[in-house]
Amino acid sequence: MKPVKLGIAGLGTVGSGVVNILQKNCADIERRLGRPVQIQQIAARRANPLCDTSAYAITQDVLAVARNPELDLVLELIGGVTTAKEFILTAIAHGKHVVTANKALLAEQGEELFKAAHQAGVILAFEAAVAGGIPIIKALREGLAANRIQALAGIINGTGNFILTEMEQGQRSFAEALKQAQQLGYAEADPTFDVEGIDAAHKLTLLAAIAFGMPIQFKRVFTEGISKITSVDIRNAAELGYRIKHLGIIRRSAKGIEMRVHPTLIAKEEMLAQVNGVMNAVMVQGDAVGSSLYYGAGAGSLPTASSVVADIIDIVRILENPQQHVPPLAFSETEEQALVTMDEVETAYYLRIEVHEKTGVLAHITKILSEHSISIEAIRQQAVHRQSGLVPIIILTQKVLEYEMNAAIAKIQALPETGAPVARIRLESF
User: Fold this and answer.
1) Neighbours of 126 (CB within 10 A)
2) Most C-beta atoms within 10 A of its C-beta, which of 69, 237, 270, 334?
3) What Å distances lie between residue 123 and 13, 72, 305, 325, CA to CA?
């Protein structure tokens, strides 16, 4: 049968992985589709020694691939926002189906891109944009389509998870763990997107749209990073039976939909707490299926390329049988839904309060918490810190509204006995 002619823009980590998979597994892919997939043209600044592209036409002009009339389908694997957006819109305007792994672009400007693809009658696929090789988008869009999704919680940034794992298991500081992540190639020279939760928020935005049928709303995601997590907090959490994970959380409540990314204490025995290193995992709670967990490599050349090639296969199958097409964001149309502000989120908390050793200070703290309807689950007073001379008080609370906790922390911080910034980490149970 007539081959599928493919163009690739970008020959970095993911692009080279796609080339390698298509070459290695070409026979199996052809048997799955009944027709071969052939790379016709690649746009790249330079050759990548990790893959053999000697048989393909190479250009440095990215838009030449988008305009090439011989191509059926193109891959956007260049990253960034500006050039990638121009490439995708140009390809769509020339009637080409597009596969992308660009979560930042889709989270920030996806509404425009999906609208353009729909109007042009082409497909914009993006399985690799979230959690690398884990087929979580396909699971939400198809496998769990019978469910009304109640909640989703995920470790969806491998760099942050690696850092927290090293802080716990290697007893390293945040700075030491970050430096190791950079040396191993897990973190960029500027790690802001990873450690401050922006990358996870991009991915969570897409998951929320698919799980709840809502518009893409990246700016509405509450985002908090892990750069303020200390070895002391990691150790305290372990002694209390918890681990700290950087989670993306979406939850349906009576008030609306919560969308948040932040460090979170979770009990050691919970499934998400067992996910270490650069691995990703997403827990989904459906009203019919209950809880399910999707675990695997969240980044890397071949895992991410696996999802890209899976999208290629899906698109070709749809071309053969158009009635199989599933809307890219799972629902035939999106619906505005009430979003819960962070002030209205209700969760439990871990507090570390360092105070000067004076009579009555603990009573002052508990009185403030009581005034804001905050019930204490557990409390520990630790030994005086040798260097600072401060006494750490560790408190676990029961669930309370965020705005009440914020007000209580402000009052505790203002006490003359409080000698350091109050550390606060949210605590969740799944």
Assistant:
1) 25
2) 237
3) 24, 11, 18, 9
- Write out the catalytic residue numbers: 203
Residue 155 is classified by DSSP as: E
* Site of tokens 């019930």: 375
What's the token pair of residue 394?
A: 């560790």
149-192 pLDDT, tens digit per residue, is 999 999 999 999 999 999 999 999 999 999 999 999 899 999 99
Q: Are strands 242-253 and 149-155 parallel, antiparallel or unpaired?
A: antiparallel
- With CA atoms as reference, report the closest residue to 309 among 8, 41, 43: 8
Domains and CATH numbers, the chain: 4-133+301-324 (3.40.50.720), 136-296 (3.30.360.10), 342-427 (3.30.70.260)
Report the pLDDT averaged over residues 317-328.
73
CA 391, 397, 401, 402 torsion: positive or negative? positive
What is the reported pLDDT for 325? 63
The DSSP line for 347-414 is EEEEEEEEE---TTHHHHHHHHHHHTT--EEEEEEPPPPTTT--EEEEEEE--EEHHHHHHHHHHHHH
Interacting residues of 268 by C-beta distance below 8 A, sequence separation 6+: 238, 241, 242, 243
CB 204 within 8 A of CB 250: yes
Contact present, 43 and 56 (Cβ < 8 Å): no
Tokens 């990314």, residue?
261
Burial call 237-254: b when 16+ CB within 10 Å, e when fewer = beebebbbbbbbbbbbee
Q: How far apart are CA 429 and CA 244, in angstroms?
A: 12
User: What number of other Cβ atoms are within 10 A of residue 8's Cβ?
Assistant: 30
Report the alpha-carbon angle 207-4-35, nearest 5: 105
Containing 4, the helix (H) or strand (E) segment is strand 4-9
